[in-house]
Design goal:
The chain has 221 residues and is an alpha/beta fold. It has 7 helices and 15 strands. The strands form 3 sheets. It has a 7-stranded mixed β-sheet with strand order 1-2-3-4-5-6-7. It is globular and about 45 Å long. The structure holds zinc ion (ZN). Zinc ion (ZN) binds next to loops.
Length: 221
Amino acid sequence: MKLDSDLYAYVWKSSMENNCNSFVIGGDVPVIIDPGHQHLVKNLIKQMEKDGNRLEDIRLIIATHGHPDHFEGTQTFARGGVQVAMHPDEENFLKEIGGQFYRVMGGEMPEVKLSFYLKEGDLKVGSKTFQIIHTPGHSPGSISIYWPEKKALFSGDVIFPMGVGRTDFPGGDGMLLRESIERLAQLDAEWLLSGHGEVIKGRQNILRNYAYIRTNYYDYL
Ligand SMILES: [Zn+2]
């Protein structure tokens, strides 16, 4: 679904199966954020094609974190010269307990080589500039991506509409998640594009969502 020029959201609707939302950023260097589960990638590709976004157009894959429901499908997109990027703490996590997590969930970690690391600060992709924010808590190397031009915030599994990322998985940390949420709350966002759940549009709705999370989740983190 097209949200704005060069901004597309593929929101996972099925309640029967866990998969993440995926996002495509068009333009001179097309990007996909979180391709999702491998066996559901064909569904994503079909949805993308309706918007004229072809698999072979994607040049960069950004992983908000390494959990299977976000990262597994990377292997389909990471072909030829397509680049793959994640935070270095997440790569270390995947080499250890995060990788075992795949086997526990009955899958195999995708065999992809990272092209570069996502670190705190500006990320230039073609003519666009994004801000990478290290937001640990759900996993050690979780990142969020802020796109100032659109005031769009891709929050991965840090925050959702009326919810937060789980902290009971290996590498999770409730206090760190709280700190990460507060950092994201400082940003001037008109789009909240979470790893699960619906898209939230409008600054006031996004602020209301932070307020809800503070009231209903912080005591448990
Ligand atoms: Zn996750």
